[in-house]
Write a structure and sequence with these properties.
Bound molecules: zinc ion
Number of domains: 1
Shape: globular
Radius of gyration: 16 Å
């Protein structure tokens, strides 16, 4: 089983939007051609986990506290959680109010201060310009990184890679002008996700 926990930090009005976007992604992943089952769960449903994760989030008050520090701590608590619940992979998606000190700190620290940042197993999204136009795109982009999907753009030029065969692919640096809100992946991303689906299947048969 693969689980993505989600949490909204100082953004209570966006909770439904975040949950619906993640569930929409899970519906697409479950179908052909990927067939990967991902469970979307609110961090609030696991009070112990929530308490530990939030205690660490509060450390972002210290400007020296890094996203990588948070990731390594979350790796530890999620791994412990996975072992007790027999979950294959658990990760955390945090949606932050862009004014929150976490967002401010991440924007300052990130190499590209754009929409969000992911260091497995934790993704942060902190900036949704025009939420209903681009919101789902960035939520999907960052949470697909949690499932091991790579970027489809050149980090220096920010242009789409030549091996990305889908103009509206959501793993590009920013949404293509042609993007109309659909869950759209190139063949390379699909292969990566199919690989994960196969490895989960194999594991559950052992
Ligand atoms: Zn990315
Ligand atoms: Zn692509």
């Amino acid at each position: 089983m693969i689980t993505i926990y989600w949490y909204c930090y100082e953004a209570p009005h966006d909770e439904e939007f975040v949950k619906d976007s993640l569930n929409e992604m899970a519906e697409h992943l479950k179908k052909e051609p990927i067939k990967l089952k991902v469970t979307i769960k609110s961090l609030r449903d696991e009070p112990e986990l929530e308490k530990e994760a939030i205690a660490q989030l509060n450390k972002f008050h210290d400007p020296l506290y890094k996203h990588a520090d948070y990731s390594s701590y979350i790796t530890f608590i999620l791994l412990r959680r996975s072992l007790t619940t027999n979950t294959r992979r658990s990760s955390l998606f945090v949606y932050c109010n862009p004014e929150s000190y976490i967002a401010v700190s991440l924007i300052k620290q990130a190499h590209s201060p754009s929409w969000g940042v992911t260091v497995n197993p934790v993704a942060f999204v902190y900036k949704l310009e025009n939420k209903y136009k681009h919101g789902k795109w960035i939520i999907w982009h960052e949470s697909l990184h949690l499932l091991g999907v790579d970027e489809c753009y050149d980090v220096n030029t920010l242009t789409r890679n030549t091996d990305c065969d889908c103009e509206t692919c959501i793993m590009q640096y920013e949404p293509s002008e042609k993007w109309q809100g659909e869950f759209s992946l190139c063949n390379q991303n699909i292969h990566q996700l199919q690989g994960l689906a196969k490895s989960v299947d194999k594991k559950s048969k052992i």
